[in-house]
Amino acid sequence: MPRIVRLDRDGPYKIEPQDIDPTKPIFICGCGLTKKAPFCDGTHKTCKNEVPGKTYRYDDQGMASEVD
Fold first, then answer.
1. Which of 42, 43, 47, 63 can bridge 33 by disulfide, Cβ–Cβ 3.0-4.6 Å?
2. In total, how many domains does the chain have?
3. What digits encode the pLDDT tens for the residues 15-24?
4. CATH number of 16's domain
5. Residue 68 to residue 65: CA distance in whole angstroms
């Protein structure tokens, strides 16, 4: 199923180390494209060429197209 995502951030949300493993931060997805929700899997790197203020549609293969 295609998803419409508007990127308002440049990357994931970083959560500082806590009780589980104090040496590693946890990253929560900020783009909505991750396959490991709610955790970041690096997919936001495909959003780097997006133009601010535009909305893009991503298909299941991660290909973007601009939405009018």
1. 43
2. 1
3. 877 666 777 7
4. 3.40.5
5. 10
Which pair of structure tokens corresponds to residue 37? Answer: 């929700």
The DSSP code sequence of 17-67 is: --SS-TTS-EEE-SSS--SSTTB--SGGGGGTTPPTT-EEEE-TT--EEEE
Asked whether residue 17 is assigned to any structural domain, the reply reads yes
Six-digit token pair at 10?
Answer: 């440049």
Q: Which domain holds residue 32?
A: 1-61
Within-domain flag for 50: yes
pTM over cut 0.90: no
